[in-house]
Amino acid sequence: MPELPEVEIVTKRLRELIAGKTIIKAQLIRAGLAPENSPRQFAASLRGARVDEVARRGKHILAHLSNRRTLITHLRMTGRFIYLDQDAEHTPHTHAVLWLDGGKKLLFDDQRHFGLMMVARTDELDRVKHLAKLAPEPFSREFSPEYLHDTFKRSSQQIKLALLDQTKVVGLGNIYAAEALHRAKINPRLPAKKLSKPRIVSLHGEILAVLSEAIANDNEFDAETGDLDSGYGRYDQLARVYEREGQPCLACGSQIRRFTQGARSTYFCPHCQRR
Ligand SMILES: [Zn+2]
Q1: All domains in the chain, ordered by first residue
Q2: Cβ–Cβ < 8 Å for 262, 274
Q3: Which of 3, 123, 156, 268 lies at a CB distance of 3.0 to 4.6 Å from 173, suitable for a disulfide?
Q4: Which residues line ion ligand 1, judged by CB < 5 Å?
């Protein structure tokens, strides 16, 4: 599942490919992809609009349009954009299509049907339910160690679960939450409010470090397949604990362990992260 770094990479690629282009026609093929818009409304609100800017908020991609509307996309599990020539065939799981000027089209393909799209008024984005409660962006000034300290001191949640809570911290999912905790040597089960200020400062730094490294770990966009996911998210090269159960910790040599937390796997080093 894409987390902030992967969504950032897709956002950047989309910006390079479609910013400045006009949507000649749009079609919502699977209505459930955009439950807040009817297929007719979806098509009508995108047709003729130019893409002014493509931005990211948390794990959402925001395409701001010249008609004061914004197309919001959440990739969820398997959603992906594919950028092709207009006469290319659609993929088997194409659920929406934007035809662009210049002879190109953008498909939204989603094998598992968890992805979400919505067209909203740009001046009302703050009120869109998916965006309204999001925590500050990790790379913003607002997301400081003080912010984390204030947020966590009120939370009895275990720290790993608090890191996944998008109202507290945006952009971290199961992989980067585990990686940041390992780097900061924090026990994933520790209640968030028990973290001392120095440990929060360390965690804050490691969250930014792990996200920056993952964003920088981008590969070339493969223009031939047009798949905007191509070569991204190679976290296996970076992971120190994620999916490394039974393998030695790169810091101390102890075996990495896995347990279930909030219905998902948490990977950690029992020695480095004992407290
Ligand atoms: Zn270790």
Answers
A1: 4-132 (3.20.190.10), 145-268 (1.10.8.50)
A2: no
A3: 3
A4: 249, 251-252, 254, 269, 271-272
> Active-site residue numbers?
2-3, 59, 264
Query: If you measure from the C-alpha of residue 274 to the centroid of ligand 1, how many angstroms do you get, rounded to a whole number?
Result: 9
Evaluate whether 36 touches 94 at the Cβ level (below 8 Å).
no
CA of 159 to the centre of ligand 1 (A): 18
Summarize pLDDT for 264-274 with one digit per residue, the tens.
999 999 999 99
Q: How confident is the model at residue 219 (pLDDT cuts 50, 70, 90)?
A: confident
> Could you tell me the two tokens for 131?
């965006």
208: closest CA among 126, 263, 111, 139?
139
What are 149-206's pLDDT values in tens digits? 999 999 999 999 999 999 999 999 999 999 999 999 999 999 999 999 999 999 999 9
Tell me how far apart the alpha carbons of residues 265 and 135 are, in angstroms, rounded to a whole number.
24
Residue 245 CA to ligand 1 center (angstroms) comes to 12
